[in-house]
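User: Show me a protein chain along with its predicted structure.
Assistant: Here is one chain, sequence first, then structure tokens.
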Amino acid sequence: MIAVIDYDAGNIRSVEHALAALGLPAVLTRDPDVIRKADKVILPGVGAFGDAMEKLNTYGLTGVIKEVVAAGKPFLGICLGMQLLFDSGEESPGAKGLSLLPGRILRIPEGDGLKIPHIGWNDLAFPKKSRLFEGIPEGSYVYFVHSYYLKADRIEDVAATTQYGVEIHAAVEQGNVFGCQFHPEKSGDVGLAILRNFGNL
């Protein structure tokens, strides 16, 4: 069973629906005991870095997230959920992330006629082999909605990149911790294949 963490962030139901379409048993929850008992955990979300961390702390979820990661359970952050895996975000100075992986969340620089937020389809490059992208061709397109992007401290954590004015670390994989800046649940067949890969870990 996959626990999808509900912490009042946007775009959580669409992840639940995508998992149901794949036949992957999932429950939307903020109950720490349910999260602990799950085989895998997903932290989705759209919103602001600082607000999201405040909600995770208010609901007592920060500790249980670190607990399930330390226990080796596959853990996937999506969009804002991926950003929260890291140390800090420019959007919310002073707010501390989960620090499960080292890196910072920076604002996409303006220029070259690029619109911020970045909304649309971009292709992925794969700097390393990743279980999340097993069977998915390099150059596949996925759907992004974001104004901030990850700059990981360790290139070995980066599973996929894309370009939007700067190189964006679009996905990460380190041990049992995974993250996608894009929305697999809104990325058609490619996105469903990514979620299926996670569900099959």
